[in-house]
Amino acid sequence: TTLGSRPSAGSPRLAELAPVRQVATLSKMRQTLLRTRLGLSLAASVVGAVQMAQPARSRSSSAVLPLASSMQSSQRATAVLVHGLDSSKETWSGVLADLAAAGYPAVAYDLRGHGESPLGDPDEFEPAALASDVLAAVRAAGIKRCVLVGHSMGGRVAMRAAAIEAESGGASVLRAVVVEDMDISPRTAPELSAEKRREVAAWGDGGEGAPGRRFASWGACREALLPWYDADEVRVDSWRNKRVRPHPDSSWWSDINPLARRLAWERVLASDDGASAWRELAARSGSGGLPFSVQLWHADVPGSVVKEGAGEVGGIADMSGKMPAARVR
């Protein structure tokens, strides 16, 4: 897969988290029947309330109980899914449906500057910040244990999140970390002229004179995106109603953010933070073990973007040698 590509919902690697099943939907007949019954029930309730209104009885306060949800379960760890380059939580929609159908709690997050998440200060766009955002969101959601899955560029974020949790010394929310289709070899960021750097800054969080990622129409958004993606009309058009979609106010929102893409290339993919995080994890793994398992998943050659050769520095074999406890798939 290319960097930032959509992970396959039918992938045998993701299938190991849960069986792949089609999500069932109510038939039109069942939906009509449900609406009819609900309408009659509501009507009866209103009539009854008018005819038999009585003062409400006081109730003693009771303890608030923790509720299970689609994001967490008392029996299974939550799958926390982190997307790759030029992507958003939308890329996991098929996988989320499969996990839900199999009874596995799951949640997908937009990294800062991607999807519907704000970019914040571009100077603070670093692997540690992205990883801390994810960990904070997990804890804010009340998730007590999770399997963190980072796809492509998200795999670098997952590595740093794992290193942060291992360093904290406290009870970790992680039960397993899956780095999917990413190694620790630094990439080379595409060159960008000074003029282009000024232009891409308009894709920030918006404000006076900066539209950000909201546009008046699909056409306006399409024209704004094309110059940043080699005028690839097929690729940009494929995002319509998915990663670029209309809002109720008739404007169009772009999950795709050329500025976040640029920052991800320079600060995450082209950096040595992946190698640094992996060394930290390997050291802790060898000195007493990690409180969670680590797995490396990669696509079959030639579809993978990772280095797999035994002598390739920063590749899968190199990573496995540095941390033998990591399971390679």
Give a verbal description of the structure.
- This protein has 329 residues and is α/β, with parallel strands linked by helices.
- It contains 11 helices and 9 strands.
- The strands form 2 sheets. A 6-stranded parallel β-sheet has the order 2-1-3-4-8-9, sandwiched between helices.
- β1, α3 and β2 form a beta-alpha-beta unit.
- The protein is globular and about 55 Å long.
- The chain starts with 11 loop residues before the first helix and ends with a strand.
- 36% of the residues are buried.
- About 14% of the residues have low confidence.
Question: In short, what is this structure?
Answer:
This protein is an alpha/beta fold. Helix content is 37%, strand content 11%. It is built from 11 helices and 9 strands.
Give the CA-CA distance, first to last residue. Answer: 15 Å
Characterize the main sheet. 6 strands, parallel
Helical run tally: 11
The helix content is 25-40%
How many DSSP-defined strands?
9
Task: Assign an overall shape.
Answer: globular
Query: How do the SSEs run, as a string of H and E?
Result: HHEHEHEHEHEHHEEHHEHE
Radius of gyration: 23 Å
The low-confidence runs, each spanning 5 or more residues with pLDDT under 50, are: 9-53
> Which structural class do you get from the secondary structure elements?
alpha/beta
Mean pLDDT reading: 84
Strand order within the widest sheet?
Answer: 2-1-3-4-8-9
β-strand amount: 5-15%
What layout of secondary structure does this protein have?
Layout: H1 12-15, H2 28-51, E1 78-82, H3 93-101, E2 106-109, H4 127-140, E3 146-151, H5 153-168, E4 174-180, H6 194-200, E5 214-215, H7 218-225, H8 233-237, E6 244-246, E7 252-254, H9 258-269, H10 273-287, E8 293-297, H11 316-322, E9 327-328
